[in-house]
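Lecture 7 notes: from sequence to structure.
We start with the chain below.
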Amino acid sequence: MQVDQLDAALASAGPGRFSTAIRLGELPGGSAIEVPCTVFRGKDAGPTVWVMAARDGDEVHASLVAMELQRVLRPEAIAGTVVVMPIGNVPGFGVLSREHPLAPTYLEDQMDDRYFEIISARGGSFIDLHSAGVPSDTVDWTLYVQGDGTAEAMATAYGSPYVYEHRMGGGEGPDPGLLDGALFVRLSNAGVPSILIEAGGGLPPSPVTVERALGGVVNALRSLRTLNDDVESRPAPRVLRSFRIVTPTRGGFFREGVGLGEEVSEGQPLATVVNAYDVVVEEILAPVAGVVLTIPVNPAAGTGTWAYEIGW
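Predicted structure tokens for the same chain:
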């Protein structure tokens, strides 16, 4: 697919700001899947940092953080290059969904394959901005791959109260291989230091969350020396080395759910599920002890819905 515009911007003399796009494919009617990119070429030489938001199309919070980053960055203050992609999943974003009904397969693995090719071939570091999307809310937590020292420094500088150190093959729960094939993991293993940031969720997006995430990304850029300001110190995070996704086995409505950041013990109730007759059909219990990272904000859920996440 076409990356000529991107490469031309990357090769441009700095300092400068360039608006471009990456064409990833087409929808059935022929309309292009074009990902908007803003390339900031710095005054001084340095590495490239890729910042992507809304790889999952319903994560508008992440897009708002990327848009704010575009607003505050100044080419003359940058060493190297920053590439900001505020809407990584353009078709999904158009319908506020993690996939588009006319291109569901492409938006699963093939699109990540394409991003991997583009970024790994050009090198640098990668910041993957996420949120819990529309149906859920999440604490601020940052993920990196065990052994990726640069990514660990980025995550620490970002300043989440929780960081998850991913071990290949170390997943648990209903989808244990979920992260092994994630884009940030693949890039990290290919020599591109990478972090994934989870920040907020639900609608409307919280301006406080967006502002906090923006400050974290800016501090991560300082840790890479992309921005010349000193790295601001952050409290030491709690390091998590595993997490578990919890799903209901019965559909219905959640009631009396636990709160974000709450510490739970194994076997503790997370929520009650009632059906349309207001009859209790299930009590969702914590399969492990840990901190509640994600909760549903939409009380209606079907069997198998991704509801809670617990980290420890």
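Points to note: The CA atoms of residues 9 and 251 lie 50 Å apart. The mean pLDDT is 93.
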